[in-house]
Amino acid sequence: QIDSARLWGTIHETAKFGATPKGGVRRLTLSAEDKQVRDWFRKACEDAGLEVQVDALGSMFGLRKGRDMSKPPIGVGSHLDTQPTGGKYDGILGTLAGLELVRTLNDAGIETELPICICNWTNEEGSRFAPAMMASAAYVGDFTTDDILSRKDAEGVTVAQALDSIGYRGDAPVGRQEFSGFVELHIEQGPILEAEGKTIGVVDSGQGVLWYDGKIIGFESHAGSTPMPLRRDALATLSEIVLAMESIAKKHGPKAVGTIGEAVIAAPSRNVIPGEIAFTVDCRSADAGIMDALDRDLRTAVAEIAARRKVEVQLDLVWRKAPTHFDPKLVDAVENAAKQLGYSHRRITSGAGHDACNLNTVIPAAMVFVPCKDGISHNELEDATQPDCAAGANVLLHTVLALAGV
Amino acid sequence: QIDSARLWGTIHETAKFGATPKGGVRRLTLSAEDKQVRDWFRKACEDAGLEVQVDALGSMFGLRKGRDMSKPPIGVGSHLDTQPTGGKYDGILGTLAGLELVRTLNDAGIETELPICICNWTNEEGSRFAPAMMASAAYVGDFTTDDILSRKDAEGVTVAQALDSIGYRGDAPVGRQEFSGFVELHIEQGPILEAEGKTIGVVDSGQGVLWYDGKIIGFESHAGSTPMPLRRDALATLSEIVLAMESIAKKHGPKAVGTIGEAVIAAPSRNVIPGEIAFTVDCRSADAGIMDALDRDLRTAVAEIAARRKVEVQLDLVWRKAPTHFDPKLVDAVENAAKQLGYSHRRITSGAGHDACNLNTVIPAAMVFVPCKDGISHNELEDATQPDCAAGANVLLHTVLALAGV
Ligand SMILES: NC(=O)NCCC(=O)O
Ligand SMILES: NC(=O)NCCC(=O)O
């Protein structure tokens, strides 16, 4: 059993790096606050006897030796970056539970057959740089390291510049750290476990993701003197697209979601009809066929709206991640651990994307979910209980012991 | 007859202050560019023998003496500020036509009975500070000078600070400069004159204006894991409001317009459902009864949308300007001048707001419109022809001569 109070303490200790007045965390990837938590994490790993490596995209790997060093380690961990108005648990729980697991093994003097590696993956959130889960995507070869290094944030700062500015462009080539398997603990970020009174989600699958960059080019004109029928209003166009995305997703019931998260009017003014808007779209399903339908229906709706309103709409797919089916053996290992520890549990699909979803394409991977209050995440009010966090960390510990061998 | 080439020359000479790559002008009120054009205008007025006064809100008044100095002058002019992506004519034509009129009288050695005063009113556009036509509104007593001085732009800079920073907080109390009448020349900013092939619009009325500040408070949550029915999406809410405003205005055919010009998502992120949005509404009609209906229908629609989507929507009326009915004698004077000069003309309602609309509540006022290309304004592509601008300036000259007496 892990030390519940110690785990809870590290979660609340690190929450000060980027703490917001509303009780959340603003720790955008590769920011000054991210450097603070990274420095803290590196020291904590070193104090626990781990050897820490940083790769060329800033991902951090803390290695605990096993008896058999000829085999790659079992990976655990998640990410330490947050949304602009994020919470204290998303990503952080999984990374710090990895640290807690190692501290527990150290205290008990337990040696494992395989080594264990705690990971902190760079830019899981995807709000400063696209795509989300950027570093693990490069790890599995979905993107080259150079491509990712050249991605820019809204201010035009590249990933390479951001890494250098906080001193976290490491020496290790991306992909060099190998794994025999990977297990990620995370809060559910959805309402199911709480609603059903289950402590552990045994994650067997994850939604696929479509991300688009959009631009609407209408025509700026005077809000007072331009007759309604002559307008080519970029915001009215966006409004129709937002509502179309909503109804397209809803057609698939609980099997799809669709969101416009960003929309920026160029040169806005109260008495000017908006002429240009940049926006983004995020839509998802765990069913590849539904993902195709979402893409097709969205494009059809956008084309119809653009033609009718005589505006130009560009819609570029910038990321497509296929649905995830986690490794059956590892999923079983998670389920067995939950069973043995006597926690109520159920199989579950992840609504959010996770580094484990990327890693699963080249390494056997699985995930452990614990409930979060009202299913709220990507919000400063994100919350989880100490017993649930400890339960998740215990399931992680016992899954890893089963996989790494004692 | 005014000197068409000289007028055209001043329009294009001053267009360099804040010139944009697309051929427009970005000269927000009380900005560094506004200071440049003000300095130019002050010198041009002084070179033409005018005495220049600046009032406590930065409005500039250039006085040409008349034979009878016991009577207040006939005012002409408009404004020199522009929209963020504005054109070369909106406001500028009317102000520089005032200068051209004085230069023409000087050259011809014509003395008038009443003095003549060229005005440059501060912040007509209303995009940096609300409301539009701020200085003339204070002039007529709709707002106190102190209230206006404390208004803030989006960066939190007050009108008082902005005036001080460019050295245009003048000594003259607002309202001290009196007028016997006021005539403003302006581009139409709408499509009617051009469509009907008329050179001069004899403006007899103007639309009333309703300006609102709005805020939507929904709930931020994860775009991937939050089921569609559980969302409280601020952007989807705004989208319904935008489309509701559009259809509410359209119900009144050509007699109303409605626009959402600004909308800013707080802490936007691709994979976060927008939780909070600030927006503005501009709606207008020349019919006071329709203005009441617009206000009522908008509030009803917003309340219904907010309740159904379980979000909070605040909608504050920040400015209400009643429809304008210009002074019949001055309107006739404009019409006579157009007739005598042989220009095709028609009576017209102004879709846009103008300082003359404010002044008309305390001084007899009227306006002269000339066509602009495709009715486009508040756009860098705004355009007007040299002959039309000259025709407008000639009508202004002859109207002023009739009112001021030779
Ligand atoms: N777990 C999580 O919130 N990931 C962010 C990436 C995404 O799913 O949008
Ligand atoms: N003439 C003009 O564009 N005025 C700006 C104020 C407004 O009508 O919105």
TrEMBL record, chains A, B:
The keyword Zinc applies. Binds 2 Zn(2+) ions per subunit. Gene3D superfamilies: 3.30.70.360, Zn peptidases. It comes from the Bacteria. Its cofactor is Zn(2+). GO terms for molecular function: hydrolase activity, acting on carbon-nitrogen (but not peptide) bonds, in linear amidines; metal ion binding. Zn(2+) 1 binds at residues 79, 90, 186. Keywords: Hydrolase, Metal-binding, Zinc. Zn(2+) 2 binds at residues 90, 125, 378. InterPro entries: Amidase_Cbmase (IPR010158), Bact_exopeptidase_dim_dom (IPR036264), Peptidase_M20 (IPR002933). Belongs to the peptidase M20 family. This is Zn-dependent hydrolase. It comes from Bradyrhizobium uaiense. The lineage of its organism: Bacteria, Pseudomonadati, Pseudomonadota, Alphaproteobacteria, Hyphomicrobiales.
